[in-house]
Amino acid sequence: MFYQSVINADMSQNDAMHKDDLEKSGEALIEFIESSKAESILRGAREKLQEFFDHHVLTKKTTTELLNDLVHAEEVVGQKLLDLEQLKSQMAQEVERMEQEVQRSLSKSQILDSEQEFLLKELERLRDTEQEIQTLQQEVDEDTTEVIPSAIYIAQLYYKVTKIKLEVDTEPHILRGVHYGMDVATPINIDTSTRSACEISDDLWSLVTTEW
Question: CA-to-CA distance for 44 and 40, rounded, in angstroms?
């Protein structure tokens, strides 16, 4: 019992000493913290951290705005490209339409030129024929010494107009001659005693071309 009491007393004394040492150490630590620059350093670190966070938020906001502006610019450029493609397509169609119109106009012009050339040639031919008829008429009117039989004169005049050359020395009821077409000569041999005058006239005029 005695030894136990001594041991207990000694342990109690040691506990008291440790407690006293801890209290002194805590007070010394608190005094050191209060007297040192730790709080100032911690405050500075918090301020730096806040500045970094604010800068991060601002950078993120600016980046987001730039991305939004970039997306909007891409949309605007894309729409302009679509509009340009549509305008290009419309212009290509208009150019093609104008080319077709020009081609049709050229074709019409060529046709008109050909028709005009043909008509001018026909007009010149008719003028020559008219001049020949007038010359023939003057020869008949002025030549008092030579009388051309009326049948021959009519035959010559008829040939100028119809290109049909009739013989004048045939039998009374036979109409004989040749039609000189553009490509072929067609003989004529009609018995007038078996045909009416209208039928004979129709047959002869059917040989005359109507193309001018």
Answer: 6
CA–CA separation, 196 and 202 (whole Å): 10
> Between the CA of residue 67 and those of 55, 56, 79, 81, 195, what are the distances in Å?
18, 16, 18, 21, 105
Tell me the angle at which helices 197-207 and 150-162 cross, rounded to the nearest 10 degrees.
50
pLDDT tens digit sequence for 70-128: 888 888 888 888 888 888 888 888 888 888 888 888 888 788 888 888 888 888 888 88
Q: Domain limits at 171?
A: 148-212
* Residue 158 near residue 180, CB atoms below 8 Å: no
Mark whether 97 and 161 lie in a shared domain: no
Q: How far is CA 102 from the centre of its chain?
A: 14
* DSSP SS3 for 175: strand
> Model pTM?
0.32
83 lies in the same domain as 110: yes
